[in-house]
Specification:
This protein has 84 residues and is mainly β. Helices cover 13% and strands 46% of the residues. The strands form 2 sheets. The protein has a 5-stranded antiparallel beta sheet with strand order 3-2-1-5-4. Strands 6-7-8 form a 3-stranded antiparallel beta sheet, with no helix packed on it. The termini are far apart. The model has no long low-confidence stretch (mean pLDDT 92).
């Protein structure tokens, strides 16, 4: 399993026991739960949806319903809206 520098991670998408980690070198898929990955990462990673977490260093813009990270639109759910 390759090791990824947390500073190079833009955002993480979780789906049914797998996570897709989007970073400077591309995309990496690991068999883990999103909540387990977030435990290993620093505090600048924010969970914004049940399936998404973003690195707040790369947030380009935000609204009540979405966050833009490196040109990608990440949904923000009502449950996590107050946390960001």
């Amino acid at each position: 399993m390759e090791e990824i520098n947390p500073k190079s991670i833009y955002y993480i998408k979780g789906d049914a026991g797998y996570v897709e980690i989007f970073h400077k070198e591309g995309k990496t898929v690991q068999r883990k739960l999103l909540k387990d990955v977030l435990i290993e990462l620093p505090d600048n990673f924010l969970r914004v949806h049940r399936s998404y977490a973003v690195n707040d260093l790369y947030i380009e813009s935000r609204s009540a319903s979405q966050i833009i990270v490196k040109g990608d639109k990440i949904p923000v759910s009502r449950a996590f809206k107050d946390l960001i």
